[in-house]
Fold Sugar phosphate isomerase/epimerase.
Amino acid sequence: MKLAVSNIAWPATERDAAYAILRDHGVTGLEIAPALFLSESSDPFVPTDGEVATAMKRMQAAGLELVSMQSLLFGVTGAALFEGEEARGNLIAALERAIALTGRLGIPNLVFGSPRQRAYPDNLSAREAREQAVAVFRRLGDSAVRARTRIAMEPNGRAYGTNFLNRVAEAEAFVRAVDHPGIVLNFDIGTLHMEGDFDAIEAIATAAIDTIGHVHISEPQLAPAPADPAQAARAIRALRKAGWTGWHSIEMAATKTPLADLSAALGRLRQAITLADPVPTP
C-alpha cells in the first residue's frame, strides 16, 4: 500500500521528529499544508527557491515524496464560491496560486475542502449552485492540467458548516458533471462516518472508483485516524476490491501530544492493513 500522512498532524516545530516517525512506520508519502511545510517563508504559497530547497531536502532525507496539498485557502480573506463575482474571483485567484505552487513542487494532487467558503446562500438553489461551481472548476481544471496536477473535490459533512457536496456520492456526481481530467474525487472516509454512509462503503467505493484521485483516512472533526483498526480494514478492503491502487493518506489534526498520537495512529493503521490482508491458506 502507498501510505501518506498530512502534515497538519504536527506543528512545524516538530517536523523532523514527525518525519522520523513516518519513516519508522514505512510511510513514504507526504501531504502538505503549505503554511506548515514552508513555515519559514513570508508567503508559503510564493516561496523562494532557497526555501523550497530547504524544505524538500528535510523531507527527502526521511525518504518522503510529496503526494498531495491541502489548506488551499489558508490566509485568504474575501474568497467564496457563491457570494458574488468579487468573492468568486478571489477564490479563483487563490486556487490558481495554489495550483502554481503544486506545479513548482511537482505535487500531483490538490484537495479542495474549504467548507465555509463553498456554502451557498438561501437565495440560490442547489441546481444553480452546482451550475456555477461546474463552470468554475472546469476553468480551474484547465489550470491544473497545465500544472500537471489535479484538484480532488472533498466532500465535507454538514457539521463543518457547508451545504455543498456533503456526501461522497454528491462529490462523485459533481466530478462527473464537471467531466474534466483535472477534477477528481477525494474519497474521504471521515465524511462517510459523519454523514452516516460508512455501512455502504463497498457500494460507494465501487460506484466512484473511476473518479477517485486521492483517499483520506480520517475521522469526524479530524480526530486521530484511524480510530478503529477493524473499520479501517473494511475501508481498505472496499477500496482495494474496487480497484484503488493510489495513496491512502491519514488526515488528522495536531493534538496536545502530536508525536505520540501520530505514532499511535500509524500503529492502528498497520493493524488495519494486517486485518485487511487475507490469511494465506497453508
Observations:
- The two ends are 24 Å apart (CA to CA).
- Strands lie at 2-6, 29-32, 65-69, 109-112, 150-153, 183-188, 212-217, 247-250.
